[in-house]
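Table 4 source record.
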Amino acid sequence: MMRAPSLAQFAAAALAMAAVVLASNILVQFPLNDWLTWGAITYPVAFLVSELVNRAHGPQQARRVAWVGFAVAVAASLVLAPLRIAIASGTAFLLSQWLDISVFDRLRHGTWWRAPLVATLLAAVLDTAVFWSIAFAGTSDPWITWALGDLGVKLGLGVALLLPFRLLIGRQLAPPHRAA
């Protein structure tokens, strides 16, 4: 049975989630080139946060962190980012986080890397499709190429973030010590 996080653990996770989403909502407005915005580099950390909470405390706690992080980030995004980006971000965030949390939970008992990898990759595809089509469709911005670049970075970072995931959950996977 999973134990609930302490108030400090929950607050840290929710704050991390909110900070990642808010930073991404602001950074998505700044293109690096015709293929990529800065937001693509920060957003995959949101999946890492929910997967760490999911691994340690279960899907219910991961959903709580996602809800709180979502509420804080969207409220701040409404002030710091255009309305269309805030709406696109909120919609894409909730749908992709729910997918990420559900897939991770279903695969949690397999090899340590399978749940975070599959959950992140599927959620990244959903997040990209929903966000970019709501935030930029109908504009003159090169949003399709930004979406493709964004997805490529999310997929690459999804793989790269397996190392910090493994390092941060390492103690959870270690066998318990037996008394002599």
